[in-house]
UniProtKB/TrEMBL annotation:
Coiled coil ranges: none
GO cellular component: cytosol
Record keyword Transport present: no
One Pfam family this sequence matches: Epimerase
GO BP field: monosaccharide metabolic process
Stretch forming the signal peptide: 1-25
Annotated InterPro entries: Epimerase_deHydtase, NAD(P)-bd_dom_sf
Keyword Signal applies: yes
Domain NAD-dependent epimerase/dehydratase: 37-265
Source taxon at top rank: Eukaryota
Name of the protein described by the UniProt record: NAD-dependent epimerase/dehydratase domain-containing protein
Single annotated GO MF: UDP-glucose 4-epimerase activity
Amino acid sequence: MSMYLVTHKLKIFVLWLCYVYLARCKPQMRLAESKNILVFGGNGFIGSPVVERLLAAGHNCTLINRGNWYWDSWTKIRPYVRHIKFDRMQKISKCSPLIEILQNNETFDAVIDFSAYHEFAVQEALSILKDHAQLYIFISSDSVYEVCLKNHSNPSVESDSVRPTDEKKRQRLANIDDYGHRKLEIEELLEYQRKDGGIPFIALRLPDVVGPRDNTYRWWLYQSWMRLQEYLDKKVSIPSYLSKHLLSFVYNNDVAKLIEKLVSSDVDPNIIDQAYNLAFTETFTLRQFLLDIKTALNITNLDIKEDDDPDTFRLFPSVTLGPINTSKAREMLNWDPTPWKTALVDTVKFYESAITRAEFDVPRRDIIRSLQIYFSDRPFKVLIGFKREYGIDYPKDEL
Ligand SMILES: *[C@@H]1O[C@H](CO)[C@@H](O)[C@H](O)[C@H]1NC(C)=O
Ligand SMILES: *[C@@H]1O[C@H](CO)[C@@H](O)[C@H](O)[C@H]1NC(C)=O
Ligand SMILES: *[C@@H]1O[C@H](CO)[C@@H](O)[C@H](O)[C@H]1NC(C)=O
Ligand SMILES: *[C@@H]1O[C@H](CO)[C@@H](O)[C@H](O)[C@H]1NC(C)=O
Ligand SMILES: *[C@@H]1O[C@H](CO)[C@@H](O)[C@H](O)[C@H]1NC(C)=O
């Protein structure tokens, strides 16, 4: 065989290898459908699974946040995104990297806003991004119903978000739930800006969110409270006024799946400029929710007491009006949430393993410290519990 043929065959072989390699790296290579996405936040509980999915689908992500890389987002997200460090309490005109991007006429297929808590921040973002963005996805909350006039006792539907016309009543409700008031104020702003050709929007109203990597530690605290019950002084309990109260929850991974779908296809005029409730199909009482976690943990000898003290410790729910109706999202967005039992088992497993994983050292220390402070009078006994149950052995002085 001539030298030429050998090198030629080698070339073909190398090309074939490249092809196999590129096919494996498909997520980064699907340039045809690749979108340019701007994300406010994207490093937290809801945002990081969304960004992970967007990256896996081959989209370009620019993240604007304060630069706190929670959980393992420093390794899973930070290296693969363009990051702009910025605190939204500041004027966006001071965010020079973003201003520069826009001056270069770069446009975004979608903006996803996970960190909107103040109307002024969204107002500024909308005005600066006008003509540079196709779609604005706003993460809202079922708390919006708390400042409205719900006039039925079924699960809240999207059209219940109508504030009282009476100014005093309006103000009273807004004072009771400032968070819901602000979230609704932002939805109202999004609607208003559309009147002079602003950015099309979608508002996603989420109830309490569950799943892995929760920065609020609510699920993990309940799980550890039950798991380490015999080493803690505080007995597992729920407030009795919640005994019959039904709750909605949503899975962070389901929200991520939906948002990826929304930004991956062209903007559908039939679904924009509206709000959607998202939640598991199942609803349950706080007791049932905790019993399910207990069962998934294979714990048999544990009672969940009811306490008549209205100030009894509780971490869910964050609203008073009960569950939300997700028919609209099912119909219009093909919302198809994970079955509760699957999400339950996956989440329980995640936190059972998180406690022993070195890369989660910050959150697991927070959990151990919280149990020592709020659930026990004998901090050392808590450490014994963690050692016996999980085999983790912290020197006392480190905690
Ligand atoms: C994504 O980023 C790459 C590298 O900077 C660029 O070549 C590509 O055009 C970008 N794609 C989109 C959709 O902006
Ligand atoms: C951006 O667009 C404007 C108006 O079309 C144009 O004048 C300007 O040169 C463009 N800037 C860049 C960096 O392409
Ligand atoms: C209940 O409130 C909604 C939203 O404000 C309104 O459209 C509807 O007519 C009200 N229904 C009744 C029975 O008052
Ligand atoms: C949810 O909303 C749909 C559409 O408005 C309605 O048909 C259905 O009965 C509602 N479900 C519940 C449980 O209220
Ligand atoms: C509970 O038991 C089942 C069946 O033995 C097992 O598959 C599962 O891993 C256990 N769960 C935990 C959290 O230990």
